[in-house]
What does this fold into?
Amino acid sequence: MKREIPLLITFIAGFLIVVALFIPHPPFNKIEETFNSWYIIVAGFTFILGIDSLILHNWEKIRRRSEGWPFALTVILSFFITLIWGIVSGVRTGHIFSTNSTFRNYFYLYIYVPLQATMFAILSFFIASAAYRAFRARTLNATLLLLTASIVMLGRVPLGNVALIPVISIAVLMLLWVLVDELKYVTSPTQRLIYIGIAVVAVVAAFPITKFLYHNLSPVTDWIMNVPQMAAKRGLFIGLALGGIAVSLRIILGIEQSYMS
Amino acid sequence: MYGLTIFMTLLAFRPSPVVNFKVVDNPNDGGGRILITWDYAPDADLSEVDHLELLRIDKPGEGAIVVTRLSTVARQFTDSGLKNGKPYRYFLRVWFKDGSYIDTPISPPVVPKAQWFHTKRIVGLVILVLYGTLLMIFLKKAKRGEELTIRPIAGLQAVDDAVGRSTEMGRPLLFVLGLGTISDLATLAGLAILKRVAMKAAEYETDIIVPCFDPVVMAAAQETVKQGYLEAGRPDLFNEKSVYFLTQDQFGYAAGVDGIIMRQKPGAIFLQGAFFAESLIIAETGHSVGAIQIAGTSSVTQLPFLIAATDYTLIGEEMYAASAYLSRDPNSLATIKAEDWMKVIFIVLILIAVAFETASAITGNKSLSIFPKLFEFN
Amino acid sequence: MNTFEKLAQIDRRIIYLILFIVVAIPFLFKVQISMKPTSDVVEAYEFIDSIPEGSAVIISIDYDASSMPELQPMLEAILRHLFSRNIRVLLMSQWALGLPLGQEAIEQVAEEYDKKYGVDYVVLGYRPGLQAVIINMGRDLPATFDNVDYKNRPLKDMPVMEGIKNYGNIAVIIGLEAGSVGDLWAQFANSRYGVKLILGATAVVAPDLYPYKQAGQVVAILGGLRAAADYETLVKHKGAATYGMASQAFVHFLIIAFIILGNIGYLASRRKRRS
It folds into this structure.
């Protein structure tokens, strides 16, 4: 019974929501809204569970003086200071975010906002290091990705077209370097000819390509974002939607039970 | 005085800028609403119009009441809070800047009512029925014991190795379920992978840490890990406190997880669930301590970051297939097979639609453009 | 290991330090780079310019402090445009902690243009429920907010709310997005009720919203700091976005430089391995 009743509730709830999608007539039109309200109420109570876990977990660390316990103390203190300050400020001014609320003017604007902005700003450092590490021309696909990403990055900022000139020049020089290097190991004359051909084409095409991109960088960037990028993304979305239906059906039909173990 | 009369008469003959004034019962709803739509004449000078007023006549013979005041940006209005089965009549009053106005003809009476079927969702129903039929076929096949194979998924094959490696290094495992709630499919898929990781952790006697963003997910994760240890035959090793709530603030959560990574230096990190801007903050920190990382998410915008920063990434639906893949349960595999066939149907449909749309664009024949209308869904 | 090979293994702390310097310098010296506004921003600007005076628009703050550097300048520039044209503004939020950011901006800009709370603008507040809120606003806008503003003052006493019943009375909804609420505005507010939509989003989120632009569900999409800077140019009031653009441009160049260095190092080490 411990398993059957939750499975039955899942089946009925899931089935009703699917049916309600196609029937606008009352009472079906309110089913999703009602279930959502129930979820919000239940989720509200589970916060107690979260707070209980947070405090016990950190209190345990302090009690045992385990490694990094001062951090745990900071968590507990911050939690209670925020909670009490918020309540007092809200009661005194009518709303915690009133213009004369000290919670808003000191805590929110001068502690919370800078902390959030700092954490988000760290992202730019990580993007730089991840890009540096991951964008290596290991294969043809990786090289194409690298070139496209560079064009988009330059196309999204002012003076990108000016910066494009040295970037393309260096890219061509690197290509030549690789080709000259490869020629040492290639023995078949046809392959040698192909390599030399690629080198010549790259050198000859570099100028017109640079010239074209210099004048059309913004439209080319938009095209990359709106056509190939969007096409790949839509493919992913369609796959996700179908996969989502499969998971939902597994859950509604009780095939998938790992979420309740 | 005489001049003014002529002027007023001329004003009265000013053509109404509003054309195609239509009043209908609001379609596909639970009743109580009427949809009013209109256009502006192409040659109308809207700069002379001050505003519009929508008026309603509730009972024949009674005066009209103003429903709302509108600007010339509006081309439709849904009147709500009406009684089902009762007739209503409407007209629009166009007020000009000089203080004069002109009315549209009064509409015929319209009765609001509730509908039993949402006509704009018929395609959705067809897809659902088709999907259901395919599912039944494959479930039957699975029951008959026919073998259903799906392609190998590198990220899932690496799960066991990652746990093993972490054990060898004597470091704990970190499992991050992301920012999703229990109603996110990505979180549910993440939980299925967590169970497998917990089983392996129990087998190898390695610690597992699961910091959570959502209290409901935390409760589910505790149960999942417990079940994993139980199935591995080591319930004695399960420590409920290793699955705990961190915070429900996005960057607070990222900071917390980063702190755990820096202090505990896990040997393997699993990022499985719904991720947003914090994905790379966690993944790069994980990389900096030399952990092997396996990510999986349905958040398309975060995939490029995770692919760049982690060792393996389950892309979208691969993650959804994880529980079926790991459990090898024939019924679950049947749903994946049905999904694959649906995909084939969609690819064919897309190709046909592209052909029709292209033909319509080239020939200029609008009647060929049937698919956009057919697949309208709201 | 020779010099070239070392380029493949630059310590990440060195990368972070150089990045920090490159971001900070343009800010410290207020470097400005002039640019032509992109067509999307011009479309949004022209649309807002065509709204008749006295109309009402909704601005939804669907971001919080972490996305503030990108979206707050956008909000301020749009507010300047709206207030200069005497358009009524109804401010709301779908992110609980985003509301104070919206308030901060609207109060500041309203003061510049001598606009009064309750007459020219109102802060409706935050209500949980996401799409349920959007759908309910289409039925009865004031009732969705329980007929009161964020401080529980009745909306019916405020001239700014005069004649506002549902989306039919709203010229455009401007959603500023750092997450997935933009999809909901397009799917529910536009698809179901036909209300016009302009979505401003962070650079990461914007590509997700372009399908709605292509499908004609959104008037225009303002993407990232660049769009904010362009809007500042159009309203002729330079602010944080314009100054930030120089930093952003230099950082993009720097990252490309790092990618090139990394690849030179990679090619050099590959060559060594082969020989």
